[in-house]
Amino acid sequence: MEDQKKKIVLITVACLLLATIITLGLMLAQSKQQNSEMQELFAIEKEELESEYSSFALQYDELKVRITNDSLQYKLEQEKLRTQQLLEELKQTKADNAAEITRLKKELKTVRAVLRSYVIQIDSLNAINEGLKKENKRVTEKYREATKTIDALSTAKEELSQIVTLASQLDAAGIKMSLLKKNGKEVNKLKRAKQIEIKFTITKNITTETGNKTVYARIIQPSQEVLTKSTSNTFTYEDREIGYSMRKHIEYTGEEQEVTMYWDVEEYLQPGTYRIYLFADGVMIGEANYEFE
Fold it and tell me: How big is the chain by its Cα radius of gyration, in Å?
């Protein structure tokens, strides 16, 4: 009787161990599948950006054949070379380097904006003739082919996005920069400002790790210099130390969170465009531009 009880116990323990091994095996397989899907999504993201950069380089060729102005041709050539350089950087970037791909994706916005400004400028010259239209048609066809490739990649990306969510980094929305008098009331003139107030919202993100986080704000003056109290006020971004204007420690819970930061004005502020860049967890989480007089 005692031996029979021991056998039952041993069988029960063996079953439990087998169930545990099977469960761990399933969890490991699922993790490998998710990692594989994430790598595939990164690869598609990289390929999509390469196609966009290539199409923009083609559009610069298109613009160059539409003008005879040497100075403008030189500027277009420089922008084309810059676009090709960014494309080469992208090609050298590994598909799993999310930080670098994110940076090049932001650079793409600038390339797109510059290209759009040149299109408007050249269209205003109205210097297109029939011979140039034929060349324009040829380049346009190449652009359409590139656009089709981008659309196909975007569709594949959207399908994979339903399986794997890559938006694990923080995101700052509703960024507002205000000038305040000594009594805290808002003013619109730099010379009357005693404080700069920056307000924004850290959006809800259940995939982001919660806990203590430090948010850094960089204010770039019209002179392209960082507004900072000390040259030692730096933080690490993309393996290098860069200066910050302000920083704030927050306790992130995964829910939407309002953040306010202040800069005491103790220097002369130049009129012009002020750019704000926000960083957390080693990545840029938001940016905005404001014009002040």
Answer: 27
